[in-house]
Predict the 3D structure of the following.
Amino acid sequence: MRLYLSSKKSSNFDLKITIAGPYQRDLKLNYVTKNERIVVIPTGGWIEELRLFPYARMNSTTLKASFDGVKDYAKLFVDKYGQEHFDRYFNGCNEVVLFEQVEDEPRYDSQILGAVFDRTIDKYLAETNSNWVQKYMREQTARVLDRYARDDNSILDLGCGPDSETLRIQRRVDVTEIDVSEIALKRSREIHEKDGNNIRWILQKNNSEFHGVYDIVFSSYGYLNIESLPAIARILDDDLKVGGFFIGSFMNRYGMLDLLLSLFQNRGKYIRERVAGWLTVNDSRYNTISFPRTPDFFDKLKGMRNQYKRGVCSILPPYTYKRLIGLAERLRFVRFLDELVGGFPLIWAVSDYVIFVYKKTGPVTFE
């Protein structure tokens, strides 16, 4: 099967590279060189991934991509691979990718992440709304949030996504919804604009857009997967009231049930990535970038006192294991057991998700 490649057999490929950044896609390609640049004619969807984040790696070398018309390079490919090969695989292609070696380390900002999420939000929303266990996980987080929130509280929702728990709780609160994805905010507005709460939707470019003083800072999954502890500490220090709560959930790096089920499915790459704390767009269960955290992720935050922790999906299958999910949905006592055992420390530490509540006691620092 040909998948985004420019020749039939892998033995014919001259170049092996990995697209860097959110996708980490391995490619085998034919190429020519011109003016010390590697020239590739793209024949697959990975060209759009390079447009979002124009970096790749070849062994230990970092390459930066630029784009040009195919006209000035066609003869080089014909001379190297022959006219028949060119006509068969590159007919209709009007663009080449030029890879040039660079020294700078590739980094992606919130604008690039937003563009990545824009491409996957609708699929993410469909999957989370159709999967019983995923709805269960969100329901559990919303219940904890509702327990600590009070009417007229102001809530800052970091990485709100298209359908946040903050807009489902049974309280009349003021909510500021933040996300790097413009499409996620658009979907959230479509779903919740008629709700009774006072809601603001803000596209995150930097932290100044949502600077304020809040009773609760909430983040379920999204923001905690793309930001570091120092960045989180600055927001909690600047924008959360003393006595206020930091509430949310994060993907546990050591979610044992998912790791075991993935082992049976022979998903070795997924297991390695999850344990290492980095899931690419291609391998994440949610089709988004994910940074699974360790159970003690917040231990280096000072000025925050732990109030509550529990696990979700300790014995329930967390993702797309359809037969197991169907069985769990019919056997309601399994859900009851999952809720019961999720509060035990040794169990929540290996649950798929960890729900947390921290109370601010003073200036927040990262140590």
